[in-house]
Amino acid sequence: MRVCLCELAGVSVAIPVSAVEEVFALGSVTPVPGAPPWVLGATSRRGRVLPVLRLPDLPTTGAARPGASVLVLREGELRAAIPIEATHGIQEALPLPGGAPAAAGPLQGAVSADGRSWSLLSPGALAGIWTEEVRRWTTLDETER
Questions:
Q1: Which of 6, 29, 39, 121 supports an S-S bond with 35, CB 3.0-4.6 Å?
Q2: Is the whole model's pTM more than 0.85, yes or no?
């Protein structure tokens, strides 16, 4: 499996390349009143409004400040920007024995890549954690915003 290797909240994470849309430097972040605490705000990229999210089950996930790097994660029609501390490129990864999901969070197992062990982020598990409110908000078309 090909993965994007990055650091999120001090955790070495592998994300399937099929779920990574892009990495970019964050511009402005607008607070979203009434949003869950893991919604850090919203930003605009290429004419699309993206929620900026902190990953559940991690103490913090980067800073949502202008200039910070974010990774755009996609799962189906959903897109979200997640602050990251560093990227380490794209590599082939092999599942590690005993790397089966231990919890219901977004980190689901482990892989070996670039000579190290990486926690595997499951885009499907993360999408299951997103609330219906955020799901509806991210899929609104321009006439509904």
A1: 39
A2: no
State the pLDDT at residue 73. 93
Question: Helix, strand or coil for residue 63?
Answer: coil
Q: Give me the pLDDT at residue 116, please.
A: 92
Q: Which two tokens stand for residue 133?
A: 């409110």
Contact (Cβ atoms closer than 8 angstroms) between residue 49 and residue 145:
yes
For residue 110, what pLDDT band results from cuts at 50, 70 and 90? very high
**Contact (CB, 8 A) for 81 and 44:** no
The arrangement of strands across the sheet holding 39-45 comes to 20-25, 69-75, 78-84, 48-53, 39-45
Looking up tokens 């511009």 gives: 27
Residue 60 binned pLDDT confidence (cut-offs 50, 70, 90): low
| Cα–Cα distances in angstroms (integers) from residue 80 to residues 3, 39, 52, 66, in the given order | 18, 10, 6, 16
Q: What share of the chain is helix, strand, coil (3-state, %, to 5)?
A: 15, 50, 40
Please state, as a whole number, how many other Cβ atoms lie within 10 Å of the Cβ of residue 15: 25
